[in-house]
Amino acid sequence: MDKMKAITFFDLDGTLLDGTSQITPEITAAVAALKDNQILPLIATGRTLCEIQPIMKASGIDSAIVMNGQFIHYEGKTIYSDEFTTEECVSLHEHVKQRGHELAFYNERRIFCTGHTGTVKQ
């Protein structure tokens, strides 16, 4: 998007998505109007990029701040990523495992769980 004048942030549930987690034609039209007026629509969510790809495609939004700010995707490109080191992941896993719990790791491409508990299956 050339020379944007402003930016607007969208949450997902109840904002960009309707009560059935769908993108309505009204939302698609509103996003197109924002772009026509040089306003960048951007999704801001705690979800991962891989989880919201269908939403981005359906809405016509190609920029997002995901994983609670750990990853920023702007017009198809990664412009910011803040990840734990391998050593930090190992340390966290050992700490949680000693207490009999499981852990979920995620990045913009995938989610990995150290175990498949009832909570994970839900």
Molecular structure report:
It contains four helices and seven strands. By secondary structure, it is of the alpha/beta class. The protein has two domains: 6-81, Rossmann fold, CATH 3.40.50; 86-121, no CATH class. The strands form two sheets. A five-stranded mixed β-sheet has the order 1-2-3-4-5, with helices on one face. It has a two-stranded antiparallel sheet with strand order 6-7.
C-alpha geometry: elongated
- Helix count, DSSP H or I runs of 4 or more residues: 4
- For the termini, the CA-CA separation is 39 Å
Q: Write down the CATH class of the largest domain.
A: Alpha Beta
Give the domain tally. Answer: 2
Percentage of residues in helical conformation: 25-40%
Q: How does the helix and strand content classify structurally?
A: alpha/beta
Indicate the radius of gyration in whole angstroms. 17 Å
CATH superfamily of the largest domain: HAD superfamily/HAD-like
The H-and-E topology, N to C, reads as: EHEHEEEHEEH
Profile the largest sheet: 5 strands, mixed
The averaged pLDDT comes out at: 90
* Beta-strand percent range: 15-25%
Give, in spatial order, the strands making up the sheet with the most strands. Answer: 1-2-3-4-5
CATH architecture assignment name of the largest domain: 3-Layer(aba) Sandwich
Low-confidence stretches: none
**Which fold name is given in CATH as the topology of the largest domain?**
Rossmann fold
- In total, how many beta strands? 7
